[in-house]
Amino acid sequence: MQRQPGELIASEPPLDSRTTAVAAYLRGYIADRRLGPGDVLPGETEVGRALGISRPIVREASSRLAALGLITVSVGRRPRVGTLKGGVVRHVLQGAITTGQANVLDLLGLRRGLEIEMAGLAASHSGAGVMLALRETLSAMKGVLQQRDAYSTLDLQFHSLLAQATGNPLFALFIEDMHLAMLDSIAVGLRSRAGKAELGRVQAVHQMILDAVAAGDAAAARAAMTIHFDEAADAVRRQAASHEQRREPS
């Protein structure tokens, strides 16, 4: 017998909970009907009847899916398919760092792998509007080079614009999702390079990235981004080593 959109298959493994069953049903409903952002989904009563569960359970599951961005819910209206929304990865990264299961170097390593490719794609796909925003952001960064917090915020904006320039919405989503963790890693990196010459080098490398992207040179953009993260990691290691030396008893 042919499966109806969103219908659970009897041979599938048992679901952990009724809430998970609702999530599976709605995901299947969306996938089977090829729905997109803004499309209407079945209401609580319809889902509850299809699965044989109560409306409060359906409501709980819907709230969880809304938090993830899969659907949007509002009082008195049927749920709709949601748009891309960050949050999950950010919380994982923050939790890992807060609990000591990862550190700033781990985060820099993750960003390095992602953003080297991101720079190359930005060079291949960037448009005039994004390029103008990148130039304006880099100019603003130069004006606040000695102001750590302001520079960190603009640095994040620069990298977010590069993510947008790739044309791949997942790059932009991931960069946004790492927002707070990225600001922490940027601030640590800047503290590691407090001298005027070192901060000037940070700005110069950003200029190298921008120049390569503007020229449409993907290889040069990847190379410049590699330099950026390698130097950031070296600076963090130097700061960590200096901190350990100060802690050692004389």
CATH class (first level) name of the largest domain: Mainly Alpha
What fraction of the residues are assigned to beta strands by DSSP?
under 5%
Looking at the structure, what is the overall shape? elongated
Structural class: mainly alpha
Point out poorly predicted stretches.
Answer: 5-15
Percent of residues in helical segments? over 70%
Which H/E pattern describes the elements? HHHEEHHHHHHHH
Average predicted local confidence, pLDDT: 83
Can you summarize the main beta sheet?
Answer: 2 strands, antiparallel
Instruction: Count up the helices.
Output: 11
Query: What is the CATH architecture descriptor of the largest domain?
Result: Up-down Bundle
The Cα radius of gyration reads 23 Å
Widest sheet: strand ordering: 1-2
Describe this structure in words.
The chain has 250 residues and is mostly helical. The protein folds into 2 domains: 18-81, Winged helix-like DNA-binding domain superfamily/Winged helix DNA-binding domain (Arc Repressor Mutant, subunit A, Orthogonal Bundle); 88-247, Four Helix Bundle (Hemerythrin (Met), subunit A) (Up-down Bundle), CATH 1.20.120. 71% of the residues lie in helices and 2% in strands. The chain is built from 11 helices and 2 strands, in the order H-H-H-E-E-H-H-H-H-H-H-H-H. It has helices spanning 18-33, 44-51, 55-68, 88-98, 104-125, 128-143, 148-165, 169-177, 179-192, 196-214, 218-247, and strands spanning 71-72, 80-81. A two-stranded antiparallel sheet has the order 1-2. A hairpin with a 7-residue loop joins strand 1 (71-72) and strand 2. Helix 5 (104-125) packs across helix 9 and helix 6 runs antiparallel to helix 7 (148-165). The longest helix has 30 residues, at 218-247. It is elongated, with a radius of gyration of 23 Å. The N and C termini lie far apart (79 Å).
